[in-house]
Amino acid sequence: MKVAVIGSSHGGFEAVRGVLKDFPDADIEWYEKGDFVSFLSCGIELYLQNVVKNVNSVSYATPEGMEKLGVNVHINTEITDVDSEAHTLTALNVNDGKESTEKYDKLILSVGANPFQLPVPGKELGNIYAMRGRDWAIKLKEAEVTPGINNVTVVGCGYIGIEAAESFAKAGKNVTLVDTGKSILPTYLDPEFTKILEAEFKKHGVKLALNQSVKEYVGDDDENVSSVISTNGDQWDADLIIETAGIRPATDWLKGKVDLNEKGMIKTDEYQRTNQPDIFAIGDSTEVTFAPTGKKQIIALATNARRQGRSAAMNLNDEKRKTTEVSGSSGLHVFDYKFASTGFKDVTAEKAGVDVESVFVVDTAVPPFVHDDKLNAEVYFKLTFDPKTREVEGAQIMSKRDVTANINTISLAIQQHMTVDDLAYADFFFQPSFDRPWNIMNIAAQKAQDKLD
Ligand code: FAD
User: For residue 451, which of 425, 421, 417, 412 has the smallest C-alpha distance?
Assistant: First the structure.
């Protein structure tokens, strides 16, 4: 059996691993249009902040290592067409422009997404960057140490924009963060949390330009960007723009080949099958099932791509395993604050028209008698639930101490359709260096019971 996998980031890598495990006799053809396999954009921030020194180490695999495992790796090879009836692919060698026709028995698409470029006047100027993939990572790193680049504008306050803003602020640049929303991280956290993080950004000199967008980029004599005009009419200096205003699936070439939805996302079933026989799709160019609603939606995360990659490989011949529904769990930090969230927040539930209630708890990480800044810190926790069924629908947590792992427990509670009553007296361990006799999830769930009863 010849299995072709297109794309070599999180999804593609996991699919190849899965095929190696489940079908050791398969011929695996792994296609990547870039000149590097398995670059992981989640590591860019650590590279920009000098925690990871070598950009090439931000990867799970090398062509040589994969070839040793029997995988045929084709870098610099863009797949430009698929004939699902003939089971063939058109492969373009991006170096010499030559095309070839390649056969497959099973095909796994993990083509991911491209950064969205703002369609505003001045978009063609120099020094307008994105933050995704190895090439942009290298350019961003160069910009970080370029003396003439002092004023950096980051467009978009999702988690990628937050990582960019923090990295360039730590590198000593004047950073302005622009977003149309009224708070940062609008799909990840409610205002109780974002107010604290916004103050933290300001404390570190990052300017916030919220409730506005970019109207125009203005250039200098060298045709590099020199300032930004915002939709509010404000104008400020900018030597570098980092656009992190969303992504678009890299699926233009698949139009008419497999079913796409109106946003260009590849439609799949729960076994990762597309509408075409023997063609599977995974990762950021597909949707996932959101556990609180049971409906498909876009949640572009490496964790989802990995889970889907594993499923696709397992299901190549038979329906072995449905991909797990997800709660959209993610975590990040803003300077000293570490936070994570999962499921619905008040803001996202309101947007989705879903009726939820929430309780907010402020506590300490360990008992108050522990006066040690490394061990103890304030913890902010919000639990969101369905007032009718009492089911847990989401949670957010933040502290200067790392208590983010609690969110994984809530993610599991959501997937298992547990109620606040299940959580209120659940058995969580206590030891004064780690926790309190009542874990903050117990406290919040008890508060939720009081609110509901
Ligand atoms: P992609 O990563 O987009 O990879 C697609 C690959 O396919 C690319 O290498 C591309 O060159 C190749 N390709 C595309 N089309 C073709 C073609 N026609 N022919 C050949 N090759 C092709 N997620 C988390 O869970 N946690 C994090 O902390 C996190 N941090 C992130 C930080 C940043 C800065 C970014 C940008 C993303 C982050 N993510 C994180 C999201 C995560 O990186 C993505 O969800 C994940 O990379 C999706 O994997 P993918 O395989 O679907 O697609």
Answer: 421
Quick one: what percent of the chain has pLDDT higher than 90?
99
Contact (Cβ atoms closer than 8 angstroms) between residue 163 and residue 45: yes
* DSSP assignment of 132-143: -HHHHHHHHHHH
Distance, in Å, from the CA atom of 55 to the CA atom of 140, rounded to the nearest integer, reads 11
List the structure tokens of 153. 């504008």
Task: Kindly calculate the radius of gyration of the chain based on its CA atoms and give it in whole angstroms.
Answer: 23
DSSP 275: S
Q: Is 12 in the pocket of ligand 1 (CB under 6 A)?
A: yes
- Write out pLDDT tens, residues 253-275: 999 999 999 999 999 999 999 99
3-state DSSP call for residue 430? coil
Tens of pLDDT, residues 101-137: 999 999 999 999 999 999 999 999 999 999 999 999 9
CA atoms of 320 and 310, how far apart (whole Å): 11
Burial label for 197, CB within 10 Å (0-12, 13-18, 19+), is buried
How far apart CA 185 and CA 181 sit, in angstroms, is 9
Q: Amino acid identity, residue 7?
A: G
> Which pLDDT score, from 0 to 100, does residue 221 have?
87
Q: Which residues contact 221 (CB under 8 A, 6 or more apart)?
A: none
Which residue has the CA at smallest separation from atom 36 of ligand 1? 132
Q: Does the beta carbon of 10 lie inside 6 Å of ligand 1?
A: yes
Contacts of 183 (CB under 8 A, 6+ apart): 157, 189, 191, 194, 195, 198, 210
Active site residues: 10, 42
Phi, psi of 29 (to 5 degrees): -110, 120
Helix axes 440-452, 406-415, angle to 10 degrees: 50
291 has pLDDT over 90: yes
Q: What is the pLDDT of residues 387-413, one digit of tens each?
A: 999 999 999 999 999 999 999 999 999
Report the residue among 40, 41, 257, 285 best suited for mutation to probe ligand 1: largest number of ligand atoms under 8 A from its CB. 41
Take atom 38 of ligand 1 and give the residue whose Cα is closest.
42
Average pLDDT, the chain: 97
Q: Which of 10, 31, 255 to mutate to test the pocket of ligand 1 (most atoms within 8 A of CB)?
A: 10
